[in-house]
Amino acid sequence: MPIIMKKLFLFILTGLLLGSCDRFDEKLNINPNLPSQASNTQLLASAMRSLPGTSSSAYGPLYPQHLSETIYTDASRYNTTFFNFYDWYYSPLADIESVLTSNKLTVSEGPIANQLAVAKILKAYYFWFMTDRWGDLPYSQALKGKENLTPAYDTQQDIYNALFTLLDEANGEMVTGNITNDIVYGGNTVKWKQLGNTIHLLMALRLSKVDPAKGRTEFNKALAAGIIQSNADNLVYTHLKDANNQNYWYEVFSVLNRQWYAVSKPLVDYMQTTNDPRLKTYANPNAAGQYVGLEYGLSGDQANTGRYVIRNISLLGESLRQQNSPVYLVTYAQALFARAEAAKLGWIPGGDAEAEKNYTLAIEASVKQWNKDDVTGLGAMIANPEVKYNPADALKQIGYQRWVHLFLNGYEAWAEWRRTGYPQLQAPANNSGRSIPRREAYPNQENLNNKAHYEEAVQRLGGTNDLNGRVWWDRP
Question: Which of 55, 150, 287, 373 is the most exposed place for a label (fewest CB within 10 A)?
Fold first, then answer.
């Protein structure tokens, strides 16, 4: 049964059940210690619980070839076409929308303006993540509940414009004062404001090919409003030593005891060429004490024979798969790489001098982030000919170092690969001619649940709902 029909069935069934109990004293069923309605900042906290899912997944780190599969290799050979987006609408977006439409906001949880501003930043972040995966999506008519079970699909261009406006509102509305129940920034709305502007800035750079004039305007607006200033401002989801809030990779490697993911050969080879000190964090040495990446996209038989058996390759670094390992989502280094590229493109003043400064600072911030402020080897890496800023090759260098920095934040790295073409990756050989995906396909259920609007969106893709259509900003 389609998910929406299930929801509708449960809604009707619940109504029938409640209607049959009208002679029963409902007060007897109320538990005074279990509130029936969450407060608005509790709803925001609930929405924040979904943040690591934008990074930690079985697919995201495979598209940009951060990781390679060791045993079951279907995902890295692009055998899955259709991806479900319903869960993002049901939660966290439903929680966020409840806050934005609430008539019960209270100052006891912090300034109401700040509660709404944080909700808008979270909404923008989730929809940015989603539209970059699928392209056109229900947005303006979405999240209306039973009032509209078949929302129209907005174009990605319209979604981007709406999100720029949403982030402008959040920046303008934020006032002095913290909020409660904030599991990300501890209520610090100054950091939320910086985060919103950094998201705005990174979104603007996505327009570098499709609408550079608009991108430049939005980029400079966000920069002037104030972005992330240090690693202390990063959007990081901190997991706990608790089965209810543990790191995804811990669950795979330790709970399920599946050694399914090695660091990819393209990434390990590049990092070894540049003497990158982050490699010891990203990967475990193999049984011989060496760092050896697994060739990407091997068939299952190939991945389990010869030199590619588990003991001979480097699995995902152990420190990144502890129960409480953090997940990095929007970071200072990302903002610096964006500023370096913007300077090279002429979006901000300073030319190559400004680009080189921000590029070098970005690498430093990244090494500090991943290696817990240990900068051993940083100077040697920056002096490496492959890394040392070269005006003639700057956009490629920025693209490669951004790719390394975004390790495990796979969907973001994949988006930047689609936009820039860096790094220069190859699809798996002997894979029926499949190319690296340019988008993820809408779930099949949409052809039943929302047929007319689904078909409109597919027609805008050229008539086929597959992995090859390009999203709006993705230009050759």
Answer: 373
